[in-house]
Specification:
It comes from Massilimicrobiota timonensis. With 113 residues, the protein is mainly β. It contains two helices and ten strands; from the N terminus they run ββββββββαββα. It is globular.
């Protein structure tokens, strides 16, 4: 009945960063959305961002994930959002109907994507 008998359920979602989309206009006038995955940051990503956001009354169909190197304060690169989600499968801590939770990746893991 001591302190060590009490088990606290750990919520893996609790301290995660919720990826926030940024929108950019391309030269042809179309708009794409981008979210970032930063080295060492546990991040929540929407499974289907295209159904949640509109810009100027238009659904966004093109999505990217930017890979951010926090060690050197630079961008490693970017990739198609849905391809990135597939490549992130080994690093998923949890998921629900709307989000996946990716653990914080090392710089080498980010570069390998």
């Amino acid at each position: 009945m001591g302190l060590f008998n009490k088990k606290k359920k750990i919520d893996v979602w609790e301290d995660a960063y919720k990826a926030t989309p940024h929108f950019y206009k391309q030269s042809d006038g179309s708009v794409f959305g981008a979210m970032s995955l930063t080295e060492g940051v546990k991040t929540m990503f929407l499974k289907q961002p295209q159904i949640h956001f509109e810009v100027e009354g238009q659904r966004i169909s093109q999505w990217r994930i930017a890979l951010i190197d926090a060690t050197n304060d630079s961008m490693i690169g970017d990739m198609d959002y849905f391809m990135a989600l597939k490549k992130l499968q080994p690093y998923i801590l949890a998921e629900d109907s709307n989000f996946i939770l990716v653990r914080g990746l090392t710089l080498d893991e980010l570069k390998s994507l």
